[in-house]
Amino acid sequence: MSAQIPIAVRSRVSDRAKTTLDVVAKFVEEECIPADSVFDAQIGEGDARWESHPQVIDDLKAKAKTLGLWNMFLPKGHYKESPGFTNLEYGLMAEWLGKSRVASEAVNCAAPDTGNMEVLAKYGNDAQKAQWLKPLMDGEIRSAFLMTEPQVASSDARNIEMKIEKDGNGYVLNGQKWWSSGAGDPRCKIYIVMGKTDARNTDPYQQQSVILVPSDTKGITIHRMLSVYGYDDAPHGHGHITFHNVRVPAANMVLGEGRGFEIIQGRLGPGRIHHAMRTIGAAERALEWMLMRINDPTKTPFGKQLREHGVILEWVAKSRLEIDAARLVVLNAAVKMDEEGPKAALKEIAQAKVLVPQMALTVIDRAVQSFGGAGVSQDTPLANMWAQIRTLRLADGPDEVHLQQMGRNENRRGKAVAIKINEQRAKAARLLEQYKVRKTEIGSNIQRSKL
């Protein structure tokens, strides 16, 4: 809630955002978390899981709209469609949304729609906005983002092979995609697809383009929905899809041919920080479940409550430290985005993207361990949370890609650091001479004897 905003950023949060944050927290705790179980029950079984969506979602959306909780993610100052919150302010709200499976969709701030709406808001033309952005922002339809491919190492987007070929007054697409998140939902009406329009371009970053493909276009086949550690994520789903001579109008090209990398970088930056924001909330909820378990008077292994075993309180303390530290990394990235834009905040976004999921997995794992067998079952939300967050170490670029880039950038300071250290050592030598003392062997003190 607003009273819990870290003091380091509190002055940057408007009164309106603080009030909204309190409403978000109450909505999540009192409406969304209890509705998570209803959502699971209403999905159904078998093929029915992909044929409709739970009614509870629509009911929650109606409540959210009456509370003024809608599309909070579009940052102030960057989009005319923005509700007027900064990345920092939305980050504080998204943390609460991350505590519930249904909360983000209930306020129309769920992935991949948020990233796709940002693409349309930032790069789409008026016609594209009217046809697709408006119904997405109104919550009338959903969308999917198609980038990853099974036959190539998609962590390097230059490897993408989906062909997008100009043919008369349209484009024809051929290829396959997987991990097409959102493609299983019957409300999914539009795919945002990345492919190659100019594979021979000497600049590998100008070979790709992004195009809008209606999900009911002829030639599209959804072969299967991939599971995440056994969870199918119905009705959202992660589709394995092929395109065979899929034709769309030339007007569906976003921004222009060869602009794909520019668009995707503009999309993935905010997407990564949104995931990190929600993941902080998931970690908080895992800690809450652990606190409940270790204080349960009916659970007394070896004659003591769990909280009375020394290692357990250490888990609690470490979890508190790790969550609070990770939160500051996320909020720092949000502030940098607000002040200088996502492109200038790539380092800070990458730090949050790598650090936060690893932190959350550690906290969730401790909570699982405190529950014993129940922790890996469906009787708590912990197993599902762990599975979902584990995917974030792969989604929007695996950790290793971000770490390599961060390491490369950090290493560029090597020459300057070496010069600085050598200058400091030279000055130290002059000072030793001046004060007539000499440096002893490593690990011992400076001798105060005369030279």
UniProtKB/TrEMBL annotation:
Segments forming domain Acyl-CoA dehydrogenase/oxidase N-terminal: 18-140
Pfam families per record: Acyl-CoA_dh_1, Acyl-CoA_dh_M, Acyl-CoA_dh_N
Positions of the Acyl-CoA dehydrogenase/oxidase C-terminal domain: 258-409
GO MF annotation terms: acyl-CoA dehydrogenase activity; flavin adenine dinucleotide binding
Keywords from the UniProt entry: FAD, Flavoprotein, Oxidoreductase
InterPro entries xrefs: Acyl-CoA_dehydrogenase, Acyl-CoA_Oxase/DH_mid-dom, Acyl-CoA_Oxase/DH_mid-dom_sf, AcylCo_DH-like_C, AcylCo_DH/oxidase_C, AcylCoA_DH/ox_N, AcylCoA_DH/ox_N_sf, AcylCoA_DH/oxidase_NM_dom_sf
Similarity remark: Belongs to the acyl-CoA dehydrogenase family.
Subunit structure: Homodimer.
Protein name: Acyl-CoA dehydrogenase/oxidase
Annotated source species: Lasiosphaeria miniovina
